[in-house]
Amino acid sequence: MAKKVTLKTIAADLKLSVGTVSRVLNGKAKEFRISDKTVKSVMNYAKDNNYSPNMVAKGLRASRTFSIGLMIPDIANPFFSMMAKHIEKAASAANYSILLVDAEENVEKEKQQVRNMLNRQVDAIIAAPVGISFDHFKEITKIKIPIIFVDRYFNNSSIPYVTSDNFNGGYIATKHLIENGHQRIALLKGDETIEPVKERRRGYQKAIEEAGIFADESLIVGVEFGVENGFKYTKELLQLKNRPTAIFAMSNLIGLGVLQAVKEEGLTIPNDISLIIFDDQPYVSYLNPPITTVKQNSEIIGEYAVEYILNRIEDESYETDSKIIPIKLIERNSVCTIR
Amino acid sequence: MAKKVTLKTIAADLKLSVGTVSRVLNGKAKEFRISDKTVKSVMNYAKDNNYSPNMVAKGLRASRTFSIGLMIPDIANPFFSMMAKHIEKAASAANYSILLVDAEENVEKEKQQVRNMLNRQVDAIIAAPVGISFDHFKEITKIKIPIIFVDRYFNNSSIPYVTSDNFNGGYIATKHLIENGHQRIALLKGDETIEPVKERRRGYQKAIEEAGIFADESLIVGVEFGVENGFKYTKELLQLKNRPTAIFAMSNLIGLGVLQAVKEEGLTIPNDISLIIFDDQPYVSYLNPPITTVKQNSEIIGEYAVEYILNRIEDESYETDSKIIPIKLIERNSVCTIR
DNA sequence: TTAAATAGCACAATCGTTTGTGCTTATACT
DNA sequence: AGTATAAGCACAAACGATTGTGCTATTTAA
Fold first, then answer.
1. In chain B, what are the domains?
2. Which tens digits make up the pLDDT trace of A306-321?
3. Which of A309, B14, B103, B245 is the most exposed place for a label (fewest CB within 10 A)?
């Protein structure tokens, strides 16, 4: 139990004042004309006993902790864990640490933990919010700490966000299906209080309209992003007398549910039914068949988020518009051409 | 910019001393015989202005931050993100926060960030270490803060760990293959400086020996946990004049690489070659074919780790043996029976 | 030779808490 | 009436760092 070496212990051992030691260690020796001899001795002592500053003391004094709160609805979702990875990478490169919270898609935990983050004096918050309500996030802006939403966001809020081009994603996926002759295209969506879900749906609908296809509302189903949701509604869709020829799944998890249901029904993709999944994951190219997806760029999203945060921390008046990151259609073999 | 409400501001407004306010807020009013009137006024003021304590000040004073450092080699790996989820859940339930670092499988970053965690005065560390060296972790024990390894660990260290029953995992997977008539079973492994890799290999070898099968060393290949590694070595295995009839892949990512290579070679699983993957993931049952896997229980691993940490924090003398969590063979359709 | 300038530090306040000790005033006891 | 006892607080130190100001001794200038 080597006794902690602090400025105080250094000062005592060297018979200096803690102020002097602090200045030396912060490279302010010249500025305060500390003698070279003193500088040397402090430096050596620090190296030898490998002193390193107590960040919480520093944080208290500076009201600045060099930490960023990261609020994620489900860190086990590969989309989010990928994003988290890039956020952590960018943050640590700038000497910031990440305080991670998994909100478990639960608004109450989210509220409570946002509070906790503030009590811990994080310098900023990056969040993929869970639900509808965001009063707890508004409070943050009042306290004047930077915040940005990633992936999910709120339209009726002035808090900036970075997200994928969800509208275009919905549009090109649907259009791709239409160009391959599909007319009855099911949309298996998530919770529609979530903006990206609305956007993807808008894109879907625009493509349908443009093509002059009958917009059958009964083909638009689903209530959340999970596997079960995808499974359950696909089952229902497949019972329809006038069954869809293609399904557009709004998340990788929903896509997994679709796969299972289709399989259980003894059907095969793409022969019996085509499928496009929103969100590309490493494993989808190994599925049977490899699935055509809309690929989001979580790296860019993460990097942009911390870039914004960092700028905002340095300059309170720094402002940007929210950012929409382009998506890409990755064609594989889950879409068949009709007629 | 509502001015921060602190003990000081409360004390000033109520014309009390900060000490008194602190005691009231910490429920020590009786003990220090603070009058009911004072208690009421402080409580009300606190509610109305929703005071909540500055955790960094608290942390400085108490040398206790209620935070746990979580060091993960690759948070985007679904196995780790799942584990992280459970760790965060258990920790936050106990009012601890998680400081997350993605070491990027890089020992240097790991070292540096362990240091950072200590500077930030985390109360404990949970780590899935990256590599061979662990001097930076030994230092931790000297500082007397609790630490536990998860998944990966070091045998020649007294630091406790929770991990899967890797030996048995390797054993039953290989045995399952043998029972299905396989004699030439390839082992596609990760970096062998990692203990779990050694264990899985030992299990594999025991099964081979027990069965009295020729142990062909040329069937044991691979150097790390990534997709490319799985791809590259599978290609090589498939070039062999006397090709293996089965592959046992040591990680989900290696498994993906195997899949790709097998596909590129125009072969199919399980007809041309059988496959078992160590580590079950949600998507594997949707692969073509669904893959037989060895399932690890990341939930238990995560929960046990924080349980240990918490006990250790409360009681310095608390000790447990390292824990080996049972694994399970999940049979699907990637193993064919020979003869 | 004396005043001014500079070198080289020490001192103390501060950030927001917690906690040991001490100081009044009021009540109780004899 | 005089002294314990207790009630109800205030004061101040401490955690580890940063930073504005002040103090002393030496050097320089006049």
1. 7-52 (no CATH), 65-163+298-324 (3.40.50.2300), 166-296 (3.40.50.2300)
2. 999 999 999 988 988 8
3. B14
